[in-house]
Design goal:
Length: 116
């Protein structure tokens, strides 16, 4: 059974940092690209960051220079380090496995709230 389980969300002040983690079933981690989408209230879900099985990355323009995606193949985990957070980063963040524009598997989501 394929599972993606996110953790690390929470409330943070503007300018602060958070690190999201996503634990994946070993059966998919070694062959799938992974990444993160987010969805703010009243908005469409948008791709945030993507990392291939080989380690190549892509980012949304809105997070370039502030967010970093990485993966630990030994632990079957993918991470999203988020620095200099802004109120507009507030959203539910979803881990995914598969293609960047058409993921195959999704996690349940973790809330990130940036507010003073």
């Amino acid at each position: 059974q394929v599972q993606l389980v996110e953790s690390g969300g929470g409330l943070v002040q503007p300018g602060g940092s958070l690190r999201l983690s996503c634990a994946a079933s070993r059966s998919i981690f070694s062959i799938y690209a992974m990444g993160w989408y987010r969805q703010a209230p009243g908005k469409d879900r948008e791709m945030v960051a993507h990392i291939t099985s080989g380690g190549s990355t892509n980012y949304a323009d809105s997070v370039k220079g502030r967010f970093t995606i990485s993966r630990d193949n030994a632990k079957s985990q993918v991470y999203l380090q988020m620095n200099d957070l802004k109120p507009e980063d507030t959203a539910v963040y979803y881990c995914y496995a598969g293609r960047m524009l058409s993921p195959t598997y999704w996690g349940q989501g973790t809330q990130v709230t940036v507010s003073s």
